[in-house]
Amino acid sequence: MLCKFSNSLNDRNDCGAEILHRIGRVGARALLLIGLCGGWAGPVFAQATADTAVLIQGTADAPAGQPVQYNVTITNAGPANANGAPFNITFMPPLVAANATCINPFGGAVCPPLNGAGPYTGNIPALPPNSGFMIQIMGGAPGGTVTATVRADPPPGTNDPNNGNNQATTNTLPVALQYFDVQ
Question: How many CB atoms lie within 10 A of CB 5?
Fold first, then answer.
């Protein structure tokens, strides 16, 4: 409904009259300008914004059974908290005898609990603006190409201005050991 501002308190057909009467001319003009004169819809709250981001680095290539290491970094550039942000780290195929440790939290971030052998999924207890941490995962290469993927999103009800940095992937390629005869 398009409303027309009026200074007349007697004009009950004007949707602004009742608002003008109740909250005064300045407040009514502000409400009419943002279009709330068609009916009260309740308070309008701005949605929180938190820019969560991930990075994953890992061993480029490895023979089956040899050790591999991955470093996963999860950060929040803000401006709002991302407390309770869900995260997920997967390895396809899974690493052999994997173990994960959270290291180097900064800016008030609290590391999530990690299941040593995986899967690595859950919610981050505290991720204030300009904070983050690293998860170091070590294990054995299972053979074949390993695809490691990490994803972290802001908690429900929080907007992310850059969803493009919420997921990252890296691959570890298999290499065959070559044996030589020494004479």
Answer: 17
**Which amino acid, residue 132?**
G
| Residues 20-33: b if buried by 16+ CB within 10 A, e if exposed | beeeeeeebeebbe
Strands 48-58 and 158-159 turn out to be: parallel
Distance CA 149, CA 14 (A): 58
Give the span between the Cα atoms of 33 and 20, in whole angstroms. Answer: 13
Residue 7 buriedness (CB in 10 A; 0-12 / 13-18 / 19+) = exposed
Amino acid, res. 59: T
- With respect to residue 127, please indicate whether it lies within any of the assigned structural domains: yes
Segment 103-132, tens digit of pLDDT: 999 999 999 999 878 889 999 999 999 999
Q: Do both 40 and 68 map to the same domain?
A: no
**Of all helices (H) and strands (E), which one includes residue 20?**
helix 15-23
pLDDT of residue 6: 44
180 in a structural domain: no
Domain that holds residue 153: 48-174
Tokens of 177: 């050991």
Picking from 71, 64, 69, the residue whose alpha carbon sits closest to that of residue 141 is 64
Task: Indicate if 9 and 53 belong to the same structural domain.
Answer: no
Write the pLDDT tens digit of every residue in 37-71. 455 555 555 689 999 999 999 999 999 999 999 99
